[in-house]
Amino acid sequence: MAPDRPFGIDPEEFERALREVGIEFRDLLGKAGEYIDRASVSTLASLFDQFVQPQRSRPPQPEGETTGETGSGVWVIYSIDDADEARVEQVFPSELEALRAHRDNTDERRRVRFLPYGVPATALGTP
Predict the structure, then answer these.
(1) Rounded to an integer, what distance in angstroms lies between the CA atom of residue 63 and that of residue 72?
(2) Which long-range contacts (C-beta less than 8 Å, at least 24 apart) are formed by 109-113?
(3) Which residue, 52, 80, 97, 22, is CA-closest to 89?
(4) Distance between CA 63 and CA 126 in Å, rounded?
(5) What distance in Å separates the CA atoms of residue 124 and residue 89, rounded to the nearest whole number?
(6) C-alpha torsion angle, residues 92, 97, 103, 108 (rounded to 10)
(7) Which of 18, 74, 104, 125 could disulfide-link 86, Cβ–Cβ 3.0 to 4.6 Å?
């Protein structure tokens, strides 16, 4: 083997192959640019969404903590009678316990709700 052709490739052949690849790559980029120019914005957005998940909008947070977030209250199972007055049936420290106790409920007047400390049970009767 000749010292200028260690792999059997002439340096001029290698340069010519690289030049041709560069030309083909430039043509491919040009075609992609033309496609992007012709494509509508919604098409590009849908293509982009396949690869990147957009952030879901979150509801605005209240400025201060509410009583329910601080946990200063109880979860109650209550029922509404014919006079639209609330009567507390059971009291629970957590929402999960209240919902578990209420899961087999068939009475439409029986409900679960958070009752902050200091709020009278009569407030449960109002929607």
Answers:
(1) 18
(2) 109/79, 109/80, 109/81, 110/77, 110/78, 110/79, 111/77, 111/78, 111/79, 111/80, 112/75, 112/76, 112/77, 113/75, 113/76, 113/78
(3) 80
(4) 25
(5) 12
(6) 20
(7) 125
Whole-model pTM above 0.85? no
pLDDT digits (tens, 9 = 90+) for 64-118: 555 556 668 889 998 888 888 888 889 998 888 998 998 888 888 888 888 888 8
Look at the block and give the residue holding tokens 């491919």. Answer: 28
Q: Can you read off the two tokens belonging to residue 26? A: 């430039």
Beta bridge partners of 48: none
Residue indicated by tokens 């690869």: 51
Residue 39 sits at φ, ψ, to 5 deg, of -70, 145
What is the distance between the alpha carbons of residues 111 and 95, in angstroms, rounded to a whole number?
A: 12
